[in-house]
Structure formats: structure tokens, C-alpha cells
Design a protein that fits this description.
3 helices
Length: about 60
């Protein structure tokens, strides 16, 4: 699916420089960054839920 992404000038310059340094396209770098951010967000949600389940097990059992 096509999408237009407008970046501030400073971020575009950083992305352009990284693309030139790594020999990868700006699109490939942006896709990788979005996927990495999504994976971190999912990991955080799972970690938080696991921690709450462990620390609040007694309360959760009481509420059942």
C-alpha cells in the first residue's frame, strides 16, 4: 500500500545520510524502524501484563 511520509528536514537529512552510509533505501530503513517500534511496543505490553499477573496474582484470584 502506498503512503506518503512527511519528515521534518533534520530527520530527513539523518535518514538520507544513513541510507547513503548503509547502501539501503530510505524506504527500507523507515519500514525497519516502524517494525522495530511495533515489536518493542508489543513486547512492553506483554511484559507489563506478565508482571501484573505475577505481582497481583492474589488480587486476581480474589476477583474471580
Amino acid at each position: 500500500m502506498a503512503m506518503t511520509l512527511r519528515l521534518p528536514d533534520d530527520l530527513d537529512a539523518q535518514l538520507t545520510a544513513r541510507a547513503e552510509r548503509t547502501g539501503r533505501s530510505k524506504q527500507a530503513l523507515a519500514i525497519e524502524a516502524i517494525r522495530d517500534a511495533e515489536a518493542r511496543a508489543e513486547l512492553n505490553v506483554h511484559d507489563i501484563l506478565a508482571e501484573l499477573t505475577d505481582t497481583d496474582a492474589e488480587i486476581l484470584d480474589y476477583l474471580k
